[in-house]
């Protein structure tokens, strides 16, 4: 495992303001190692509205099952995130561990167990000893403080080489609201080591159903449009909480996602989700390049996204990027294997502004040198026009390097 | 690109007998380089029955289009295979090149253009100068000889580290028949360098429709059940020819694939296809391990195959294999992301004979050392029981190593 920071890491980190209605603390519960920070607790002073989207895996972790079951209740008082043990593929013991953790958190905070949310990353298949949380959570609840975002982002890192934070502000009906978020993830999944988790909190006053609509719509062009290695975690979790503290400033509660006053908030939220998602791609295991792949002219937006992901997940496209090789033949291959409608004789392909292929042939005016210059950049825009319809999509990925193989092949041995 | 032979290469090669009714020759046509063998010609003395299966890519090469168009005619007199230029993504010029090549071959052999079959591998997007074939094919037709299988297999190699040959015998109605085949391929696709091609010939007398049924049924559990890197070529081609020479020994022509006399032939053909397919996997770019992944207990055979391919194509499963890591958590992940029905609490997983997980939990009796010993082998059997139904499938793949990244990342630069 490399100890160095991704070359694609942000040059500077956002200064993260405290967010009204939320306090956080970290601690060492000794889940896997002694004296290592392995628990993050988020505490909402009053019940916060809550929304969540989770892994589509058919084998989700016990924590994902637990969160899904609590969501219809719509209110959150505490979030407990642990590293060192994913509590996935742990059967009945896994469910017992989530129950016990929720009980400990509920006792510490003084709330119902259905107001607790859980996320776990780490070794899978290993029973999680949830008794370790009991005393710890009490103390964390007492210690929790508002100005703690950066520390929280660091606490949930695994193979990440940098903490992922983002903040935005928006207005609702003239009242200023804030949105803060953190994320972790470097492989989309690598059981025992990495998984994608993200927690976003706003002080806006928004009802759970509206919050869920905003989040579900926002995740598709952001977190669900990026891929590091095509492998989907059993534990992927993205949650959005609304503390409602902005009501003190006169913000009227938003009940519906269709409310016109949400325009600014929706834009800021989507921008923040995109920011966090791109930070995850840019920390992709072994990454040296970020590829932004835009597909236009597909039969539908869904078809465009399937083609774009076929390109983004192709090992041959990703190794070519690592080699700074403007290998558009591999793009053609990936379009062809996607299964979506494509007419070879209408395809056009660009690296940056350099059109390398058009009408199913190499572009006569194409300069290999110009294309290679684009490939030498850290951020490489790739555009493919299918020439059939109006469907478009943009997805992000990173290159596939020997370092990725080293991180994932040398890990447990 | 590594110059060494795959550690998984066969310890010895089959001795390939001549096959009645077929002659072959190789030559240098100067397609990409001077003085390098780059054309293989197969000539059938009399029209052979023909069947073919081709890439499912939506962007197939001009040669694939050409073969598909000729197949309904059902008879073959000549096959021309060139390396150095894939004639893929070459638009109208690509079609002109296939027409001209077919014309040259038809003139040389004295047959119709619809009795010619073509396959090309090499650079994509580069127009193929088919005029280079004209004089060459005449001479090849004159030089063609029967005892040439091993040379033919070597002539079509690209990133392959060893030639792929196989031979079987069978009987039809008491008459002995032979089946010979060659294949090439090391990446499922790597435009500019590699693609999967295979040509199989029998001296049995079998009508085209029956031959096509046999081939279409045979390809699913063999060539379509292996993956090196999940990338599908624009040029994948598998063809089966029947010269009918066994009629001289009294074999009665087979008109239907349902004919009971085909039992021995079908078994031999499928065994040969499996042999060639496994040789391709074992020569996977950078491979040091071969994984045989068997899924049982899925809802259907199709579901089992989708789950098996999800495991076989997972970069994290493949890098774990390279690291000799019995990382069954990544198997759970790959089952979960397949999209097929799976119940975490019924899953069981084996490496070789070592059951590592059962009923959705780590197997209590599981020995990490025993599992690691299995991972140290060159050939690693992985078995997953879904516990839901009777669907089964077996697929083959290889590990993902730094050498794969080197071969495909360093290639054009």
UniProtKB/TrEMBL annotation, chains A, B:
Its EC number is 2.3.1.35, 2.3.1.1. The active site is at 195 (nucleophile). InterPro entries: Arg_biosynth_ArgJ, ArgJ-like_dom_sf, ArgJ_beta_C. It is found in: Cytoplasm. One of its GO terms (cellular component) is cytoplasm. Heterotetramer of two alpha and two beta chains. Belongs to the ArgJ family. This is Arginine biosynthesis bifunctional protein ArgJ. It comes from Rhizobium tibeticum.
């Amino acid at each position: 495992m490399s100890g160095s920071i991704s070359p694609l890491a942000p040059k500077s980190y956002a200064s993260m303001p405290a967010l009204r209605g939320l306090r956080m603390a970290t601690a060492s519960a000794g889940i896997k190692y002694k004296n290592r920070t392995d628990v993050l607790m988020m505490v909402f002073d009053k019940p916060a509205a809550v929304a969540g989207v989770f892994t589509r895996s058919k084998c989700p972790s016990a924590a994902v099952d637990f969160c899904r079951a609590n969501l219809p209740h719509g209110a959150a008082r505490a979030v407990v995130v642990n590293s060192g043990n994913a509590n996935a593929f742990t059967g009945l013991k896994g469910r017992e561990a989530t129950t016990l953790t929720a009980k400990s958190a509920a006792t510490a905070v003084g709330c119902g167990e259905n107001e607790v949310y859980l996320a776990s990353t780490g070794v899978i298949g290993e029973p999680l000893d949830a008794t370790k949380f009991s005393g710890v959570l009490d103390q964390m609840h007492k210690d929790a403080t508002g100005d703690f975002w950066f520390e929280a982002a660091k606490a949930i890192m695994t193979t990440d080489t940098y903490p992922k934070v983002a903040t935005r502000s928006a207005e609702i009906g003239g009242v200023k609201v804030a949105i803060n978020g953190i994320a972790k993830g470097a492989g989309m999944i690598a059981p025992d080591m990495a998984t994608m988790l993200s927690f976003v909190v706003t002080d806006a006053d928004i009802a759970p159903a509206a919050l869920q609509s905003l989040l579900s719509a926002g995740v598709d062009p952001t977190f669900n449009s990026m891929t590091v290695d095509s492998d989907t975690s059993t534990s992927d979790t993205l949650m959005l909480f609304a503390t409602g503290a902005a009501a003190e400033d006169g913000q009227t509660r938003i009940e519906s996602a269709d409310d016109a006053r949400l325009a600014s908030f929706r834009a800021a939220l989507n921008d923040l989700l995109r920011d966090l998602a791109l930070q995850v791609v840019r920390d992709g295991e072994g990454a040296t390049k970020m590829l932004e792949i835009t597909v236009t002219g597909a039969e539908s937006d869904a078809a465009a996204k399937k083609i774009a992901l076929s390109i983004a997940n192709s090992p041959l496209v990703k190794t070519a990027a690592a080699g700074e090789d403007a290998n558009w033949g591999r793009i053609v291959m990936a379009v062809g294997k996607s299964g979506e409608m494509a007419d070879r004789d209408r395809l056009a392909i660009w690296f940056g502004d350099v059109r390398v292929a058009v009408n199913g042939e190499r572009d006569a005016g194409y300069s290999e040198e110009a294309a290679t210059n684009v490939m030498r950049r850290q951020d490489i825009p790739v555009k493919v026009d299918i020439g059939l319809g109006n469907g478009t999509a943009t997805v992000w990925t990173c290159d596939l390097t020997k370092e990725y193989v080293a991180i994932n092949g040398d890990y447990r041995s």
